[in-house]
Here is the input.
Amino acid sequence: MVVGMRVRGGVLAALILVAMPVAATVAAAMLSSPVAAQTASSIVVEGNRRVEAETIRSYFKPGPGGRLDQGRIDDGLKALIETGLFQDVKINQAGGRLVVTVVENPVIGRVAFEGNKKVKDEQLSAEIQSKPRGTLSRPMVQSDAQRIAEIYRRSGRYDVRVNPEIIEQPNNRVDLVFTITEGSKTGVKSIEFIGNSAFSSYRLKDIIKTHESNFLSWLAGGDTYDPDRVEADRDLIRRFYLKRGYADVQVVAALTEYDPQRGGFLVTFKIEEGQQYRVGSVDFQSSIPTLNGASLRSFSRVSVGSVYNAEALEKSVEEMQIEASRRGYAFATVRPRGDRNFEAHTVSIVFAIDEGARTYIERINIRGNTRTRDYVIRREFDVSEGDAYNRALVDRSERRLKNLDFFKTVKITTEPGSSSDRVILVVDLEEKSTGDFSVSGGYSTTDGALAEVSISERNFLGRGMFAKASVQYGQYARGGQLSFVEPYLFDYRVAGGLDLFYREQLANRYISYTTKTLGFSPRLGFGLREDLSLQLRYSLYQTSVSLPSTLNNCNNLFPSNSLGQGFYPTPAYINQVLGGVDPTGNVNLAGIPGCIGDGESALPVRKELANGTALTSMVGYNLTFNSLDNNKNPTDGLLIDFRQDFAGVGGDVTYLKSAIDGKYYTPLVSDIVGLIHLQTGALTKIGNNNIRMLDHFQMGPNLVRGFAPNGIGPRDLTFFPYTGSGDALGGTKYWGASAELQMPFWFLPKEVGLKGAVYADAGSLFDYQGPTSNPLTGEINGLVNGKPCNCGMVFDNSNPIRSSVGVGLIWASPFGPLRFDYAVPITKGAYDRVQQFRFGGGTSF
Here is the structure.
């Protein structure tokens, strides 16, 4: 028995020894083998409070047979972590089940900002991704802190520090507070150019948008460091050189360095100019048999012998490609080729016209326009969905969208369409503010102190319309105006505008009377070319004249009866009242109705006062050619404006008024700019209606500097010998010529915006054709009560040449453009009025 038991015990021990490694092997196999997860209960979820267990289980998707392998478990784990809902996720496998243990992220109760004074809470909230009632994600919080810092850097504050703080609250909730130390603005302390010899650094600073800091930077702006702006400046410099013949120019680098001692950035542009080229020849080659390349010559803006101009070359390509499309060659492409002659410094240009790929526009997708309507953007395209793809037309559309000034950025790219011959145009936009509210103030020697309040919107209601309302109130000038412009009237590229206006010009030391004008003017504008525009207009307005009582009361008798004795008949003898006696007692004009001038305003003024309100109905047009390089601060180019107005389409007055004004700017040496200004005009009588004095040209410093407003031309002399004054009557013809040199003050920082000018002016205003007598008041030249009386208006109608020389100070200030002039007349008329100093300017704030 004992032996038998020992045998059985030995067998059992042997079996145990054999079974132990087998059991270990089976257990290991169970852990590494797929988990039976055929039902939801096979995945156990622990630690969840807000997220449903079923939602967590859904991230673990069984494979064939309803089993989860290790790869699917790993994928589910990664997907759960990427949701951002959990701080931690752990996976365990036990008893054939998958145990998922989670630690949920807390919920954000509120998001607050502290220390921000320069940027509003609303702007910061819109930029960050962490939101109230959202789940807290620490990586997202760090990303938000970087976003906030980037907002400040864009406005030039590179010393900004953003510290996010998470404040624990009950029920697994937190408050997120971003504490911001804004720091001061980081300005640009210096801008340098290396390698420039053709153009001075002073001139190149005019081209770029980045400016150096100065004592007025807080008003002007543009002096804060912005890497995107500096990069854009590189392209501006390059295009400036390419436009002026430097075909090999390269802006190699824009180096920026922070100087802690000066507390700002030092920006250096490194330029390789190369040589200036001229156009050696212009040829046309067409690979399209039915299209003669030479027939497009008239659309070329480059000519042999002219300075090579890359901008003109681009526009030539655009115009020729558009013309080819109009002729039925929708897929024609024009590619310019330039062969340089390095010894002669010339470029031989060949325009190659080829049949391009037959590609159509499948769709035009517009992105980023949160306010501007889609149709406002689409109407700037000369192509639409389904048309042939034409890169020149697309480039022109992009340029038009930029010129609207509705967007910070505009970029048009292409994406593949549904087939190889289809493309999708993608228009990416970033909106910007288009409204403006301004309070303006200024002073000029003509109008005295003046204030203006205006509100305008360039993109009214997101429909691309312009609207403006303004009110002016000044010492001598007052009024208001409402303006509205629809740039695409009736869906045509025609600008329709309407102006409602009221103007009041008060009596001052230059005129004795007050005029009030109330009216409206609809207009149409046409862009004939990029440099040529036409405007048609109609104006309907009424004008009334008023006088101070002392100049219209017929009682301003001379104090001495001896005045004027020995000059009969002279103007002294018309100083009378109805039924009265003149100062010398020699003439009695009793019985003549009305009153006769006795030192009052000029006869034409009082006649307008007696006639009452006059209605003017007028049609006119402006034809303007503008090739200036900069409309605000031109240094090169030509501006010619020709205008005509015909009054007599109904109304009370009839005349034809024509005027032409031309300005030519050209750069000379050392940043000195030359200006030639020519102007002339004529007022022509139409029919039998006489021309009113108020419709005559009135000239002064706008024609020849050194003279007072209304200081030039025919003048009422009826009482000039006794009062030393008389109203300016104006003239029907004028001409003027001016030569000016504008030069910078090289010893001042460019950003101050000061430059000087020296000039010489010449011109004349002459040929008064208004009323000179009034039989109703006895102001006539002839017999009065049977006696000869020179009782009409005596006036000067001579035509001397007025000329002057002077100096000026021009300031492109943060308050607006200001100009100071001091001019000395060289030649003048006997009765002209001189004003040697003149100042004008204003501000918006």
Q: What stands out?
A: The radius of gyration is 41 Å. Confidence is low (pLDDT under 50) at residues 1-41, 555-597. Residues 91 and 328 are 69 Å apart (CA to CA).
